[in-house]
Each structure stands twice: as C-alpha cells, then as structure tokens.
Design a protein that fits this description.
elongated
Length: about 160
C-alpha cells in the first residue's frame, strides 16, 4: 500500500481579512458633535450680543425696524464723513460701514415708508461719498442729520 500524504497542521493564528480603508463610521459621531457644538456656540453668542431688547435682533425677513436699527448701529461708528477717505484701514472701514448703513436704511424704507426720511438722509450721505464731497459745513450737516434721525429711532 502506498502511504498517503499527511495533511499539514492548521495555522496557529486564523487568517485576517485584508484591511483597506477604515470605516468612516468612527468619525461620524465626533464630527456631528463638533458641528452641533459650533452651531450652538454661534447661536448663543448671537443671543448674548443681540439680546431680547435689541431692535436689530428681529428675525423676520420683513422686519423694517431691524433694518433701520442695524443701519443706525453701523452709522454710530462713522465719526465723520471726512474720515472716510484716507489710506489707512480704519478710514476704509468707515467708508464701507457708511455704505452698508445706507443699504440697510434703503431696505427699511422699502418695507415701511416710515423710514423714507432716514433713507433720503442716507442717500445724501452716499452721494457725498461717491462725489468726494465729504468736507465742509454741508457734509457735517448731512452727518448730523442722519445721526439725529437715528437718535429719534431710539425714542
């Protein structure tokens, strides 16, 4: 009789599956938690900054009062029209801030005609900025008119 070939012994460790990319599921929970935490932090910061008594904290797309209040908040940080033209970054910020305030005032007037006087005052300021007519008594008067109208919104 012929001797049969012996069967080799089984390996001491079982074979492992080939590892390719790791399953992305281990990153889903931490990533989701980070997104939720960031969103909550931004929302909390906004609530603390705006506060419930702040007119600019209006949330509706048709909230003209919030637009007018936002325009006046931005305007309050423009010290004078003549300071909007220099080479420094602060002057550039005044220029952009005045333009943004004018856009918000225009939005408020389109939603509620009660803000048309504020819009017209800002249009004068915008015209002065566009034509470089930012010095002199008339420019000072234009700045003061907007400031006075904004102060009247607080009443």
């Amino acid at each position: 009789m012929a001797a049969s070939a012996s069967v080799p012994p089984p390996p001491s460790t079982p074979p492992t599956a080939a590892t390719g990319r790791r399953a992305p599921s281990r990153w889903i929970a931490p990533l989701g938690a980070a997104v939720v935490a960031a969103g909550a932090g931004i929302g909390l910061g906004w609530l603390l900054w705006a506060g419930p008594d702040n007119t600019a904290s209006g949330t509706g797309p048709d909230d003209a009062a919030a637009d007018a209040a936002g325009a006046c908040q931005a305007w309050s940080r423009v010290p004078a029209l003549s300071k909007a033209y220099s080479d420094d970054e602060t002057s550039k910020a005044y220029f952009v801030r005045a333009g943004g305030a004018a856009a918000l005032a225009q939005s408020a007037a389109q939603l509620d005609r009660r803000y048309s006087t504020l819009d017209k005052a800002f249009q004068d300021v915008t015209r002065r900025l566009q034509t470089f007519d930012v010095k002199g008594a008339e420019a000072v008067a234009a700045h003061e008119k907007v400031s006075t109208l904004c102060a009247g919104l607080d009443d």
